[in-house]
Design goal:
The chain has about 150 residues and is α+β, with helices and mostly antiparallel strands. It has four helices and five strands, in the order βαββααβαβ. The chain has one domain.
Length: about 150
């Protein structure tokens, strides 16, 4: 991504997950089943297959390397992140309140986790309002972690 003066920014890849935490007991694909996640929704998944392993739905996954052929790679990178977050917001805005409440009922948790890789020490990330509204409505806390 580039700043207003054309200088290189340092976010080079990001992944945004919806996580379903269950604690010590692995839950397999239960999180996805409760949310009625379907292949046609277009999200990758990783089941909870061991203790303390969250079930993950990859809502967005973009790397600047995928955008290098675009006329403006940094703008393409930002546009792909925005489009992915808006798609995620649309999906989250569907009938997800009751399934998330059912998931949380037995003391489990759900949240949004944003992972990013930085080449320098600057982090620029814009959340579309649609995504923030959907997360807020569902009580999904957003955690950001870089270079982990």
């Amino acid at each position: 991504m580039f700043g207003s003066g054309g200088e290189a920014m340092s976010l080079v890849s990001t992944r945004v997950f919806l996580r379903g935490h269950a604690g010590e007991t692995p839950t397999g694909t239960l999180f996805f089943e409760l949310l009625d996640l379907r292949p046609s929704d277009g999200f990758k998944t990783m089941p909870s297959d061991s203790s303390w392993s969250a079930a993950l739905i990859t809502l967005v996954e973009v790397s600047i390397d995928e955008c290098l052929d675009a006329p403006e790679p940094s703008e393409e990178f930002a546009a792909r992140i925005e489009a992915g977050l808006k798609h995620a917001a649309e999906w989250l805005t569907g009938d997800r309140e009751k399934p998330l409440a059912a998931w949380r009922g037995p003391g489990r948790k759900a949240d949004i986790f944003v992972a990013g890789w930085l080449e320098e020490d600057q982090f620029d990330f814009v959340f579309p309002h649609e995504f923030l509204l959907a997360c807020g409505r569902l009580g999904l806390q957003i955690t950001i972690c870089t270079n982990d």
